[in-house]
Structures are given as structure tokens and as C-alpha cells.
Amino acid sequence: MKFLGGIMKKALAKVLIVMVAALMLSVPLTAQAKELTGELEIFSWWAGDEGPALQALIDIYKTQNPGVKVINARVTGGSGVNARAVLKTRMLGGEPPESFQVHAGQELIGTWVKSDRMEDLTPLFTEMGWTEVFPEGLIKLIGTDKGIWSVPVTIHRSNVMWYIPANLKKWGVEAPKTWDDFFAIAPKLKAAGVMPLSIAENWTINHLWESVALDSLGADNWDALWSGKLKFDSPEGIEAWALLGKILEYTNSDASSLSWQQATDMVIDGRAAFNVMGDWAAGYMFTTKKMAPGKDFGWIASPGTGGDFMFLADSFGLPKGVKNRDNAIAWLKVLGSKEGSDTFNPIKGSISARTDTDLSKYNDYLKSAAADFGKDRVVGSLAHGVAANETFTGGFSSIMEMFLKSRNAEFAAKACQQLANKAGI
Ligand code: GAL
């Protein structure tokens, strides 16, 4: 019996070993995810009013990975104007964050991919089936022939004009469909003590320029600028600057000291009639200010650009040599997931970059943006990294500074062409 007992013990031990081995093999993804420890540093410019959507994503990540300490590193400054400079110092200094916000397009490809600082995410895209759910055109923007370099999380629209319907009614004006419509009502608004159009710090004027240029040039010529087929100092190029100059006559003079939110506040408070801004302004109005889209605030494509959707996309990549690579990959998985996307975007004021989005989670503004994105002519934003690399966008800001002082359209257009030559456009 003893002997038999010994055999039974051995058999039992074998069964146990097999069971444990089987268990170890079948635990993989979830248990592995739960086991993640250490830190995850997420670097972005989504601070303050822009924070809640990111926080909702971090909450999902924390539920899935309770052992990871998330460092939400934010550098304030709309459109990443300050964050990009800090990021550059860190990347070049060999201290990359685990993942950072970057615009899809030339801002990503022309900078960090070109200098070979990013990991190819093709295996992740294949594993998660993302090549099927992100639009082909978008994957082209975040990819090269050597790989796919970031995970897109938003589709934002740049060419939108915002207003308060009740205020327009009070002032007896309508939202302008063209800049001529705007020029027709602007003197009346000014006479009533209302600033026709609010603007803020330098980059918001670059942002206005791209909407104005899209109208003035048309979508084909807009694209031709970036493929080098149309010169910036062509008569069409000069005309876009001249139109901006005319519009600036009806804007506030304290712009350089204001954030984009403060320019939106001018519209909300009735100090200004209109503001041209990306649809994070909608997010600000409905998430921060609790205003109802269509009722408390209204929107129209920026003058002359109805039927065009100037887009940009925020994305996150994986720099080479990060300290906690697995934590970063788990973060990218949350970002690209349907749950992550449909949690983040309805708060942020953007539409999902995925094609299988659950529209019932989105409000009326976002539903209308999604419908337009599906049917409009889609072009890329300059101010938010799609159309040109950082050599161009950085130089463009200086040209804008000069233009604000000189108002010389021809000079600005010529300077743009010289910059384009330098930036390889
Ligand atoms: C854009 C960015 C948006 C929003 C905006 C204002 O460049 O893509 O997500 O953050 O800047 O900061």
C-alpha cells in the first residue's frame, strides 16, 4: 500500500505539474496585463480644461493595470506649442517619456520617424486588427514604407466657426457663409460694441490663416501648396494673406496675451460674435462649460469652406529606449481600442479615428462632424501638424509674427516660399 501510495503521490504530483503548466499557458494577456508594474509616463499638452478626456482614458488603463503608477506629464499651451519644445529636449537628452502626443502626418514622420527615434508599431496593429478598423488614408499618414509609427486617437476638425445663437438673434445677424457675408455684418457688430471675430495667441492666428487660405485657394490648390505644385508666392498665395489682413481689421488687439479658451470665452460672454477654432472648442463648451450643442452654442464651417473638412489627428507613439516598454504597449492598446476611443472622444470634442465607432455615445455636434467627415472633401491642417514638417510650421509662426506687424501680404507670401524651399516642400 505504501508503494501504491508512493505511486499515487507521484501520479498526483504529475497531474498537479501538468495542471499548473496548463494554467500558466492559458493565463496570458489579462493576467500579464495585471502583472504590469513600474511607471508609465504619458506626455501631452492636454492640461486644465483639456484634461478630462485624457483622465477618462487613464482611468481605463488603471483599472486594467492597477500595479502601474501613471505619471500624467502635461505641458500647458494649446496646440502643443510649449510641449513640443520640452519633448525635443527630453528626446535628444535620452529621456523619452513612455508615450507622447504627436499629430499624425508630417509632425510625426518629418521629425521623430525621420530621426529614427520611434518603434515600428506594425506588429501591434496586426495583433489588434487595427489595419482593418482605422481608415486607410489615416494609416498612410502615420506610416512610411518602413512601418506604422503611432496610434491615432482623435479626428478633429479645424475649419469651424463658433457662435452663440441667442446673441446673433439679439444683434440681428446670421452666421456668415462667406467672408463677404462677414464683411457685410462686421461694421454693424463693431458699432454695437461687439468684436466681430475673436483671436488669441500666435498659433490661433496660424489656425485662422489655414481656414482663410482654404477658402481663398480652394481645396485643390491647398493640396497643391503642400505637394510643391503651387508656389506660396503665386498670386493665389498672396491673395490668401491679403484676405487674412482684411479679416484682422475686425479682431481684438489683446490677442497675444489670450489662450484659445479665452478667445472662446469672448464669444460665450457676448464680447465677440465669432471665433474660428478647431472642435476642441466644442469640447470646452460642452464638457467644461456644460453648454448644449445647437442650443447654447452653434457652429458653421468657417466662411467659404462648407463641403471641406480640414482635419487633424492626435496620436501617441512609442519612442525607442523607454524604461517601461510593456506599460507603454498596454497604454497604446487602450488608446486604439473601441472602448478607449468611444470614451475619450465624446468628452474631448473629436470623433473617433476608428471606423466602427458607436455614434450613440456622441452628441449632436459630434454626430454632425462625423457625417461631414464621411461626405466632405478632406484636407490636412498646417497648424496641427498634418501638412508640413516642424521646420516649416516653426518658421511659419515667425512669418505670422512679422505679418501681424507689417500686414504685408506679398512679403509674407515670399517668405513662405523661401521657407518651403528650406523645409523641402
Ligand atoms: C490641437 C490638438 C487638439 C487640442 C488643441 C488645443 O493641436 O490636436 O487635441 O488639444 O490642439 O490645444
Description:
The chain is of the alpha/beta class and 425 residues long. It folds into two domains: 33-155 and 313-380, 3-Layer(aba) Sandwich (D-Maltodextrin-Binding Protein, domain 2), CATH 3.40.190.10; 157-311 and 384-423, D-Maltodextrin-Binding Protein, domain 2 (3-Layer(aba) Sandwich). Helices cover 53% and strands 13% of the residues. Strands 2-1-3-13-6 form a five-stranded mixed sheet, sandwiched between helices. Helix 3 links the parallel strand 1 (38-44) and strand 2. The radius of gyration is 25 Å and the shape is globular. Mean pLDDT is 93; it is low at 1-12 and 18-33. Beta-D-galactopyranose binds at residues 45-46, 50, 78-80, 103, 154, 156, 278, 280, 312, 314, 384.
How would you summarize this macromolecular structure in one to three sentences?
This protein is 53% helix and 13% strand. The chain is an alpha/beta fold.
The CATH C-level name of the largest domain is Alpha Beta
CATH fourth-tier homologous superfamily of the largest domain: Periplasmic binding protein-like II
Mean pLDDT level: 93
Low-confidence stretches: 1-12, 18-33
**Percent in helix:** 40-55%
How many E strands? 14
Bound molecules: beta-D-galactopyranose
Through-space gap between termini? 87 Å
Quickly count the helices. 20
- Please state how the strands of the largest beta sheet are arranged side by side: 2-1-3-13-6
How many domains comprise the coordinates? 2
Beta content comes to 5-15%
